[in-house]
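Quick log. Single chain, no ligands specified.
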Amino acid sequence: MIVLNFTHPITDAQLIQITDLLGRTPDQVIDVKTHFDDQLPFVAQLESLMEGIGLTPTQWQSEPILVVPPALNFIAAALLAELHGRMGYFPPIVRTRPVANSIPRRFEVAEILDLQSIRESSRKQR
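-> predicted structure:
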């Protein structure tokens, strides 16, 4: 499994939590530096970001991929649309949360959200 990390670097503790939730250790973690200029259109910046990841079309469609999305909601929404287009489905994502009463502030892995299952389940509400 490839972990695409679009936010802060994944700590050793977070990697252990991800491994525990997945039941396996990810084969690769790709840290994608995600910083967009608010004054420029996001689509062009997103395209550039995605090309920098270096996965082939075959990898996008066949490798198991887990995504740690960026914190900025506009980038995250556009990224998910882009990933769906490349992969053919919505990838599972890692949800993090602040560790209660931690100083300095730390984040832990809360859960893995299976976006494709959420989509399929919601279709029953049409």
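Strands lie at 2-5, 28-31, 65-68, 92-98, 107-114.
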